[in-house]
Amino acid sequence: MATKHEMILQHILSLEVGQKISVRQIAKDLDVSDGTAYRAIKEAENQGLVSTIERVGTIRIEKKKKENFERLTFAEVVNIIDGQVLGGREGLHKTLSKFIIGAMQLEDMMRYTDAGSLLIIGNRVEAHYSALKAGAAVLITGGFDTDEKNKRLADETDLPIISTSYDTFTVASMINRAIYDQLIKKEIIFVGDIATPLEETFYLKTSDKVKDWYKLNKESTHTRFPVIDSKKQVVGMVSSKDIVGQDENLGINKLMSKKPHVVQSKTSLASASHTMVWEGIELLPVVDESRELTGVVSRQDVLKAMQQIQRQPQVGETISDIINSNIVASEDNPHVFISKVVPQMTNHLGTLGHGVFTALIIEASSRLLMDTRKADLSIENITVYFTKPVQIDSDLSIHPKILEIGRLYAKIDVEVYDDRILIGKGLLMAQLINR
Question: Domain named CBS: which ranges (predicted)?
């Protein structure tokens, strides 16, 4: 018999994607305590079945498949960037296919904006409308609002309009990081992610006979089956080599291999694979803490999953990576650095973002310290001044200069020029980490 916790999880699984969930309603519908309902909802959140959003509540979302690591739901985006939902709440469960930074003319922007995407943009109301008409959700940066017409359209199309106080660079970095955090986690796939569930599993009971094996073999075309007792606990495995030539009325419990290898749903795929190869096992029963059967995993399942892992990109390029890859040392002076302002580094006005400017200063300072002291830096304090907006495609010249340096600390002054015109400065204090 299922526990109350399992009963609530099954109830949540049965709800339609996009439906709101509350502790009080779950407790009332299933006649359980608020505490039990709360713990089950948190477990559902850990399993990726629901997402809790401030000022919106908890909603049922579609659980992402393992081969779809690089996608997020709009509900997850709201949580990542601490956003406020202005409209289209019913679409928060949907998955975004890509995001576009709106730092270009409207007609150019719309060439890249299609259904299922997320347009990250500032206070450009006409662009909000055009994106929604194209089937894309909208993320407005800088804490701006949109007009009522767009909010109504968002509600009609179930496409979220989200507002955040962060700038475009910071938002894109946060979403990128969340995506690639998932890609990193892909290495850790668990048996439960790929196992055949109990309702689709073929098994025998200790009370069954050899003739029951033949019947199940004909129905399933499988030759190996776990054997369970009256408590549904796995007590054996039986295969064709145990059965062939035996009397059809002989009990399975007389022929089965006792105390078989089993795994739990939280066993890593790597561990299960090692067990199968080392022991020459084709099928592993999946059990819970009490050794009760919950499903099976085959060697074929494991191989297919491991091939899928290999097809996933191994590393992802974040916006910080793009910034760092654009900085090169000057040919005239190895301690002066050059960087071109590419579209990903700009804000909604098409000028260099404040966060990008800070990242450029830190990267140039880090390279200077690596060249002169073979040390990494850990920023303790940084002050940044902008004196002039920087346009897209500008070629920046970054001049870090060490003011003070000791065994553990350094103070660095950085000047940034655009075509020999000072456009900003930075002063940072950093702790040195010697290599």
Answer: 195-255, 256-314
Dist. CA 336–CA 328, nearest whole Å = 9
Give the tokens for residue 233.
């606990």
DSSP assignment of 246-269 equals S-TTSBHHHHSEES---EETTSBH
- Burial (CB < 10 A; 0-12, 13-18, 19+), residue 289, is exposed
Instruction: Give the burial class of 211: count Cβ atoms within 10 A of its Cβ; 0-12 exposed, 13-18 middle, 19 or more buried.
Output: middle
Burial class (CB within 10 angstroms; exposed 0-12, middle 13-18, buried 19+) of 408: exposed
Distance in angstroms (rounded) separating the CA atoms of residues 427 and 406 = 17
Query: Alpha carbon 215 to chain centroid distance?
Result: 44
Q: At what angle do helices 34-46 and 4-14 cross, to 10 degrees?
A: 60
Helices and strands of the chain, counted as H and E runs: 16, 24
Q: Which domains does the chain possess?
A: 1-59 (1.10.10.10), 64-186 (3.40.1390.20), 191-311 (3.10.580.10), 319-434 (3.10.129.10)
- Quote the CA–CA distance of 419 and 423 in Å, as a whole number: 10
Q: Which two tokens stand for residue 371?
A: 């060249």
Residue type for position 85: V
CA distances from 328 to 5, 32, 174, 344, 396 (A): 56, 62, 25, 18, 11
CA dist 170 to 126, 182, 271, 318, 421, Å? 23, 19, 38, 11, 26
Q: List, in order, residues 6 or more apart from 321 with CB less than 8 Å away.
A: none
**pLDDT tens per residue, the chain (435 residues)?**
557 777 888 888 888 877 888 888 888 888 888 888 888 888 888 777 888 876 677 888 876 554 444 568 888 889 888 899 999 999 998 888 788 888 778 887 888 888 888 999 989 999 999 999 999 999 999 999 999 999 999 999 999 999 999 988 888 888 877 776 665 555 567 888 888 888 889 999 999 999 999 999 999 889 999 999 988 999 999 999 999 889 989 999 999 999 899 999 888 887 888 788 778 888 999 998 888 999 999 988 887 776 665 554 444 455 677 777 889 998 889 899 999 888 778 776 778 888 889 999 999 999 999 888 887 788 888 999 988 888 888 899 999 999 999 888 899 999 999 988 999 999 999 888 765
Report which secondary-structure segment, H or E, holds 24. Answer: helix 23-30
Q: What does the angle CA 10 – CA 53 – CA 320 come to, to the nearest 5 degrees?
A: 115
